[in-house]
Amino acid sequence: MDLGSPWAIISGLFIGLVGLVMLNYGRKELNLRVALAGLAMCVYPYFVASLVMTWLVFFAIGGGLWAWQRFSPD
Fold it and tell me: pTM, whole model, 2 decimals?
């Protein structure tokens, strides 16, 4: 993660907090899908260097979770 930009730090913090909330909710509700998406959101900002890629991955994880929940036969 590029720490030269304040927007990168704020974005990483926001995405990590959203991931933490999702991880706790998934653990509480025993929903493995939400917990794994939350864990991914907590971890991936450390490995992505671009601010745009950080947000694209965030929306990809959220959209993938939504599609997984919506179109799953369970």
Answer: 0.86
Query: CA-CA distance, 64 to 74, in Å (whole number)?
Result: 16
**∠ CA 63-69-70 to the nearest 5 degrees?**
85
Domain span holding position 29: 6-70
Q: How many CB atoms lie within 10 A of CB 26?
A: 19
Question: Residue 65 in contact with residue 34, Cβ under 8 Å?
Answer: yes
d(CA 73, CA 25): 22
**Does 1 map to a domain?**
no
Q: Tell me if 55 sits within 8 A of 68, measured CB to CB.
A: no
Domain count, the chain: 1
pLDDT in tens, 13-57: 999 999 999 999 999 999 999 999 999 999 999 898 889 999 999
